[in-house]
Design brief:
The complex is a heterodimer. In chain A, 74% of the residues lie in helices and 3% in strands. Chain A contains 20 helices and two strands. A two-stranded antiparallel sheet of chain A has the order 1-2. The longest helix of chain A has 32 residues. The radius of gyration of chain A is 21 Å and the shape is globular. Chain A starts with a helix and ends with a helix. In chain B, strands 1-2 form a two-stranded antiparallel ribbon. Helix content of chain B is 75%, strand content 2%. In chain B, helix 2 packs parallel to helix 4, helix 7 packs parallel to helix 11 and helix 17 packs across helix 19. Chain B is built from 20 helices and four strands. Chain B has a domain of 228 residues. Chain B is globular and about 70 Å long. The chains are: A mainly alpha, B mainly alpha. Chains A and B meet through helix 5, helix 6 and helix 7 of A and helix 17, helix 18 and helix 20 of B.
Chain lengths: 494, 492
């Protein structure tokens, strides 16, 4: 191996965090520039990896493997395939953009940017790890920066939301740890690749293989989140600072979906098939319940947060429909939702920041005062409801087509149709929200409110380009994802 | 045959302790006492390391064992004692008299712990235990204020009861087997049939009483009543010493007695394995739940150490590899996990206590609410304490994460998945009270803007323990290897 791309991508932000935290006397300006630098380079590198990625191969690429802890057979094992690479790019992109979004932070900037960079490292680590212990290590590290970021720089009941987030996540990962340990004892290995290829048919284990599957699934389900484990999400989103909401909705939730594909489905294809119906029903509940709750919200950020619950239902549906197209759709939806909801939260943050108001009942007519934000917010909203030519359409279309035609579960057509109804509800709340915020008579109290400045227009532009680009030419992503999904479909025997 | 060179680490410590007391008469600058103590510990550690890999040797007619298990613990105790002494220098300067005795007693307690790890015979186990305990009784009362005196008296009285219970248990075991040497006890147990053991309830009672006696040392529920008061009243460096040194020594004896003397036959070890599993589950749950409402940080860490004893007992309970066909394979992952957990817990808890010593000596308070805004007043201390608390929760990148992973993987191998699930849920509960301290330090408004400074020796000790916590959390391979070698003798 010539150059360790993945290690560089993962650990550059952490290096930046250490530099920012431990070199005394850095000016606030310099801290922001350093953060931008230490996130821009990983972004550039990940785009470079995307360019040289071999789209014909379903194998793990850019692999790095070192013996880490011989006593428990753990390896420092990194690599990406078509499923994880889009998510790495997603996180690297959001990681850079959130630094720009945070440019106006002036409360304890040193700590803020250090935690933000550390968060990026841990999420990138989750998407790149192929060793279960390493995966779990990155999975757990992520909690600490989130705790600090929400509880220091948040708003409202920030400390409550932060500790709720921590307890929920640790609760999920407690079961995940039990699952990983059982899996390790049953197979004697911690390598996701080896275990998936070896299969679980012949192993001896303490508890039934299905038990291990569920232990692991609970950990991922908390993160995705799956009803009824979702209640941390609206609180965390509502009270987190804008940049953290963007990372949380954009990349963090995807750890759950990614883990389900990489661990639950790849390692336990038989069990996944057996329980697919339950999970598909949960997915539909997620979609409809999430959307229904969203309709009732009056807080701008809380509304977008609940819409995430609804949209993650599509991911769950796509994963456990267990067909090639639906899995591609689920991965696509993870990427697309990451960008779209990232933009929605960024825009909501701008509206809140500029107008000092977040209650939908008191907002109105802002299209007059902030036309640029209004347009971009509308683009993000329309993408969210799956308008053609946006990435949201491509992703949701694939999920629905994939699950409608799937043969994995009896009666999946009915469930898919129910899931499609979610689109209608989404259209309802998105349009209602846009109307409430931007249209109607202009209000005098918002006369002094400013529109987006140059920096903000730059990152809005990036978001919109990605949304439209992927929407118009989805093959740019689906080619890569298809390569990654192939081996999973192979395990499923389909 | 007497191989006195095998006793070199212990002899060095004994001599150092005496030299420190004598030196106390002569020198004006009391930091010399700490320096000489550290020197003694380093020399002793040098001797210990030079014996590593020398195979299993015995001394004094099999009374003392010099094997990798004993050496692992001796090194651990030497490191602990050195960190405690470094952390004490500033604290002890407050005493007008008896500084020499303080250091000497710390050294003698370490000597007792080292002997506890090495003894393979019941009477000498008892003697080593008493050497440790008596030194610690005095040290706990060293502040001579009302709380410290009360703590010392409580510790002495309850400790004496525990010793009596232990001695009674030993007497019963001796009565039924006719042996005091652990190896000989094992042989005579194996010669007894199932019916033979069942028809001697006194033997079982003896084992249970020994669990109770050692349970006091390791602060396992329900033998934990002394912990909060003693932890709160004792001088803080001694609290740290109690919470890691005394506990580790208790586990060393517990491991050696139960695995070498009562390890065979299998059904017997499975029975006491279950007993330890239940003690573990109860201990961690009780410790964590009572820790939740604590407002004094030393008391909170007292209950936390009860909970940690519960996690450690998981390693005691992991007796054999469990296979569905109810056949049993020897496994030492649980035991080496226990050793690794002890090492990581020692560094973590010492780090936490050292930070607390530094902060509290300035604030003159142990209340958690007084730690408000510590991140502003002493950023490095706050960061170090945060790292240690994260390690106590068992989150990466700190040592506690690896320790939990390792010890629980041994438990899963032994078919104790239920216990592991209880344990991991317990760590979620514990996150709440550990993070409360973090919250107070980083998010609350400071009461004053005055910086909190700390003496250099303390900073060295803190840096060393935090470094250890990170190393064990990120590249634990080497220490895990040592723990595995040390636990190898329990493969049966």
């Amino acid at each position: 191996m010539d150059f360790n791309y993945l290690s560089t991508i993962i650990f550059l932000p952490a290096l930046g965090a250490v530099i920012i935290a431990f070199i005394p006397g850095l000016s606030d300006r310099l801290i922001k520039w350093l953060s931008a630098l230490f996130t821009l380079v990983p972004l550039a590198l990940s785009i470079y990896l995307f360019a040289i990625f071999d789209r014909a191969s379903g194998a793990i690429q850019f692999e790095e493997k070192l013996s880490w802890i011989p006593a428990i057979n753990a390896h420092y094992h990194l690599g990406v395939d078509g499923i994880s690479l889009p998510l790495v790019i997603l996180m690297a992109l959001l990681g850079f953009i959130v630094v720009l979004i945070s440019w106006k932070i002036d409360l304890r900037p040193k700590e803020y940017f250090a935690w933000l960079l550390l968060l990026e490292t841990s999420i990138l680590g989750v998407f790149c790890s192929l060793d279960l212990l390493l995966f779990f290590l990155f999975w757990e590290i992520e909690v600490i920066p989130m705790y600090f970021l929400i509880s220091i720089w948040g708003t409202g009941r920030k400390e409550y939301s932060a500790i709720k987030y921590v307890i929920y996540t640790l609760f999920g990962s407690a079961f995940m740890l039990a699952g990983i340990l059982s899996l390790y004892f049953a197979t004697g290995s911690l390598s996701m690749v080896d275990i998936a290829q070896g299969g679980m048919a012949m192993v001896q284990s303490v508890i039934p293989v299905a038990g291990i599957f569920w232990l692991l699934l609970i950990g991922f389900a908390v993160k995705l989140p799956v009803f009824p484990l979702h209640t941390w999400l609206p609180d965390a989103h509502t009270d987190a600072p804008t940049a953290v909401s963007v990372v949380l909705a954009g990349a963090l939730l995807k750890m759950g979906g990614y883990g389900m594909i990489r661990v639950c489905v790849s390692i336990f294809p038989q069990v996944a098939r057996e329980f697919a119906l339950i999970l598909i029903i949960l997915a539909v509940v997620n979609v409809l319940y999430g959307a229904a709750i969203t309709l009732r919200q009056t807080d701008l950020k809380r509304m977008i947060a609940y819409s995430s619950v609804s949209h993650m239902g599509y991911v769950l549906l796509g994963i456990f429909a267990l067909s090639q197209v639906s899995l591609v759709g689920a991965t696509m939806q993870m990427f697309s939702h990451g960008i779209i909801t990232g933009l929605l939260f960024a825009m909501a943050g701008l509206v809140m920041h500029n107008s000092k108001e977040r209650d939908l009942r008191k907002l109105g007519g802002l299209a007059r005062q902030m036309p640029v934000i209004a347009v971009v917010f509308s683009v993000a909203g329309l993408a969210s409801l799956g308008l053609p030519t946006t990435s949201g359409f491509a992703a949701e279309f694939l999920v629905f087509v994939g699950s409608f035609t799937s043969a994995a579960v009896v009666g999946i057509k009915l469930w898919t149709i129910l899931g499609v109804l979610g689109i209608v509800l989404t259209a309802g709340y998105i349009l209602w929200m846009l109307q409430r915020v931007f249209y109607g008579p202009p209000l005098d109290k918002f006369n002094k409110v400013k529109d987006a400045d140059i920096l903000e227009r730059v990152y809005m532009f990036v978001f919109v380009v990605v949304i439209m680009g992927v929407g118009i030419y989805p093959a740019i992503l689906t080619d890569v994802i298809k390569a990654g999904v192939m081996p999973v479909v192979g395990f499923l025997g389909g | 045959m007497l191989n006195f060179e095998l006793l070199a680490p212990e002899l060095t410590l004994a001599v150092t302790a005496i030299v420190v007391i004598l030196l106390d008469f002569g020198v004006k600058r009391k930091w010399w006492l700490a320096a000489v103590s550290i020197l003694g510990l380093v020399v002793s550690a040098g001797f210990t390391i030079s014996m590593w890999g020398g195979g299993s040797l015995a001394l004094f007619n099999n009374m003392l064992a010099v094997d990798s298990f004993a050496l692992f613990f001796k090194l651990l105790f030497l490191v602990i004692a050195a960190l405690v002494i470094l952390a004490s220098t500033g604290y002890v300067a407050k005493f007008s008299r008896f500084q020499g005795e303080y250091y000497a007693l710390v050294l003698l307690a370490a000597l007792g712990m080292m002997l506890m790890a090495a003894t393979a015979e019941l009477i000498s186990i008892y003697l080593a235990l008493e050497l440790t305990s008596i030194s610690l009784y005095i040290l706990v009362g060293f502040l001579k204020d009302s709380k410290s005196t009360e703590a010392s008296l409580k510790y002495l009285l309850l400790g004496a009861v525990a010793s009596a219970v232990l001695l009674f248990g030993m007497a019963l075991v001796f009565g039924f087997t006719g042996q005091t040497q652990l190896g000989a006890i094992a042989q005579s147990l194996q010669a007894m049939s199932l019916a033979g053991v069942l028809s001697s309830p006194g033997l079982i009672a003896g084992m249970v009483l020994m669990v109770a006696g050692f349970g006091f040392k390791i602060a396992a529920v329900p033998f934990h009543m002394w912990v909060p008061d003693v932890y709160e009243g004792a001088p803080t460096p001694i609290t740290a010493y109690l919470s890691v040194g005394s506990k580790a020594a208790g586990f060393a004896v517990l491991l050696r007695v139960f695995y070498s003397a009562f390890g065979m036959p299998h059904w017997l070890s499975l029975d006491w394995g279950l007993l330890f599993a239940i003690l573990a589950a109860v201990g961690m749950t009780v410790g964590n739940i009572i820790a939740l409402p604590q407002t004094n940080i030393k008391r909170m860490l007292g209950y936390s150490s009860i909970a940690q004893a519960g996690y450690l007992l998981v390693g005691m309970a992991s007796v054999h590899i469990f296979l569905p066909a109810s056949s049993y394979l020897p496994s030492v992952t649980g035991q080496s996990g226990l050793l690794f957990f002890l090492a990581s817990y020692a560094l973590t808890n010492l780090g936490a206590f050292i930070a607390i010593i530094a902060i509290s000596s300035k604030l003159d308070s142990d209340l958690i609410s007084d730690y408000a805004g510590m991140a502003k007043r002493a950023p490095v201390l706050a960061l170090a304490l945060t790292l240690c608390l994260i390690s106590l929760i068992g989150m990466p990148p700190a040592a506690g994460f690896m320790a939990k992973f390792y010890i629980f993987s041994g438990a899963v191998q032994s078919g104790l998945l239920w216990l592991v699930i209880i344990a991991v849920i317990n760590s979620v509960i514990s996150a709440y009270y550990y993070l409360r301290v973090v919250k107070v330090m980083w998010m609350d408004k400071p009461a004053s803007r005055a910086k909190v400074s700390s003496p250099p020796a303390l900073r060295v000790a803190l840096a060393l323990s935090c470094l250890g916590v990170l190393v064990l959390g990120i590249i634990p391979g080497f220490v895990m290897k040592l723990a595995e070698m040390a636990a190898q003798m329990f493969a049966f």
